[in-house]
Amino acid sequence: MTMFIKIILLTSLIIVCISMIGIIYRLIVGPTVHDRVVGLDALGITLMAIIALISMVLDTKYFLVVILLIGILAFIGTISFAKFLEKGVIIEHERSNSEHRD
């Protein structure tokens, strides 16, 4: 890998890390809960970008599994928070009246 590409990768890593500061601010101060959920999702995506850039700088492919895992967990977390904000519960236990008669 040439020196020029390493400089570009390190510069983009610094820029993405600086953008994470704004995302953390939105996550903490967000005026509504919905802003905090969007901030949490953006934090997961930014973390995936940072790990991808580190993987390119180190010239390894072993971090790709970690990126995939963080992506899956961020998606499940976002869906869970959205369902909680919409219905108030994450897991619904619906029972019919005919099955459980006292």
From TrEMBL:
Protein location: Cell membrane
List the InterPro entries. Answer: MrpF/PhaF-like
The reply to whether Transport figures as a keyword in the UniProt entry is yes
UniProt topology in membrane: Multi-pass membrane protein
The molecular function GO annotations come to: sodium:proton antiporter activity
Q: Name one Pfam family in it.
A: MrpF_PhaF
Give TM regions.
Answer: 6-25, 37-56, 62-85
Which key words tag this protein in UniProt? Antiport, Cell membrane, Ion transport, Membrane, Transmembrane, Transmembrane helix, Transport
- What are the record's GO terms for cellular component? plasma membrane
* Similarity remark: Belongs to the CPA3 antiporters (TC 2.A.63) subunit F family.
State the protein's name: Multisubunit sodium/proton antiporter MrpF subunit
Organism taxonomic ancestry: Bacteria, Bacillati, Bacillota, Bacilli, Bacillales
